[in-house]
UniProtKB/TrEMBL annotation:
Name of the protein in its database record: CobQ/CobB/MinD/ParA nucleotide binding domain-containing protein
Organism domain of life: Eukaryota
Pfam families documented for this protein: CbiA
Biological processes per GO annotation: negative regulation of cell division
Organism (species): Arachis hypogaea
């Protein structure tokens, strides 16, 4: 049995790990638009009531707030997953049929283009737009897979933050994006550089909300706390938190802070908890964002859920799925279900992976695996 907990502490809903009918089907995928004219999708088969009620994934999320929502993805500490989050949340939003522009504001050390596999398509940057060397639409790189996702890089790799380029220039770019003939995007995501110097100040200037990424360790938390103060000073009061690289095995062994501990320390609303997942590194190296992976991965599902919550401004509860202690026939023989799968269902690794997909922080895992 799996138990689903909302975060934080609300009653537990239970569901079978392997439902008796073959229900792991999901609505047909459409190439460019997940929810075309109608806002309802064919309902997923009901094999469990509580998770469906919790996740509500059979409908398009309702965009709350004014468009465009200008969201800066920041952290303070470097290497905690800002760029990974920008790429995956951005593409999740595009798959939900929202138009998204992702701005890589990490001047000199840009790598969002690499994560998206778009590095060869960047011919012009925002600096060239500002210098009058090209038009804005020439600097916007359309994603290969989702045409409603576009990337704008501020500068060429390894260049320095040019003198005179600051918050005002970024505000000008955001205003130019708003007044495009194609229409104003629903989301503008800004991938912020690490640290709290000029690059950070520039990146947060046009934003009206922020996603703060932290890992559950004390150094990242300290920097995240400092950045929260700076964001609030800058007038950004809508700050949501993503806890990245969570390891439940370490939390259970009391070697890592739990998500609730992190939430208590920072006092910010939780947008998502992303597990440590080797698939993240694999997808980074392939230039193929995780949320596009089939079958879905643990971290990919968690990013999708975070994107959904971003759209609806937290109306959907974060959900944690855990495996309950095993009882019954197989435990009597000392077998875990994973062992059973590894015996009957091909390679042990694949089988274990499948089990993991359902047992972690997933939300849509039960329906889409
Ligand atoms: N949930 C995760 N599980 C495993 N690896 C992860 C996870 N999230 C991020 N990583 C890895 O951590 C590394 C840093 O991620 P990323 O580049 O997104 O961080 P960043 O905050 O943007 O870094 P920087 O401050 O340098 O811009 C990458 O190699 C990425 O693959
Ligand atoms: Mg980065």
């Amino acid at each position: 049995m799996l138990s689903l907990h909302r975060l934080p502490g609300v009653p537990t809903a239970k569901q079978p790990l392997f439902p008796s009918t073959s229900t792991f089907t999901h609505p047909p995928r459409r190439p460019t638009c997940l929810f075309p004219q109608s806002k309802t999708l064919p309902k997923p088969p009901k094999f469990h009531k509580s998770p469906t009620a919790l996740l509500q994934w059979n409908r398009k999320p309702q965009l709350s707030g004014e468009t465009p929502r200008v969201v800066v993805v920041t952290s303070g500490k470097g290497g905690v997953g800002k760029t990974t989050t920008t790429a995956n949340i951005g593409l999740s939003l595009a798959r939900l049929d929202f138009s998204v522009v992702a701005i890589d504001a990490d001047v000199g050390l840009r790598n969002l283009d690499l994560l998206l596999g778009l590095e060869n398509r960047v011919n012009y940057t925002a600096l060239e737009v500002l210098n009058g060397d090209c038009r804005l639409d020439q600097a916007l790189v359309r994603d290969k897979r989702w045409s409603n996702f576009e990337l704008l890089c501020i500068s060429k790799p390894r260049s320095k933050l040019p003198l005179g380029f600051g918050g005002k220039a970024l505000i000008w770019l955001v205003d130019a994006l708003k007044s495009r003939t194609e229409g104003c995007p629903d989301f503008i995501l800004i991938d912020c550089p690490a640290g709290i110097d000029a690059g950070f100040i520039t990146a947060i200037t046009p934003a009206n909300e922020a996603i703060l990424i932290t890992t559950p360790d004390i150094t990242a938390l300290r920097d995240a706390d400092r950045v929260t103060g700076l964001l609030e000073c800058d007038g950004i009061r809508d700050i949501k938190m993503i806890v990245n690289r969570v390891r439940t095995d370490m939390i259970k062994g009391e070697d890592m802070m739990s998500v609730l501990d992190v939430q208590e320390m920072l006092g910010l609303p939780l947008l998502g908890a992303i597990p440590e997942d080797s698939e993240v590194i694999r997808s980074t190296n392939r230039g193929y964002p995780l949320v596009l992976n089939k079958p879905p991965t643990l971290a990919g599902l968690a990013f999708e859920q975070a994107a959904w919550r971003l759209v609806e401004q937290d109306t959907m509860q974060a959900v944690m799925v855990e495996e309950e202690p095993k009882r019954g026939f197989f435990s009597f023989f000392g077998w875990s279900i994973a062992n059973l799968l590894s015996c009957v269902g091909g390679s042990g690794r694949g089988a274990r992976r499948k089990l993991c997909t359902v047992q972690f922080w997933g939300t849509k895992a039960e329906a889409r695996d």
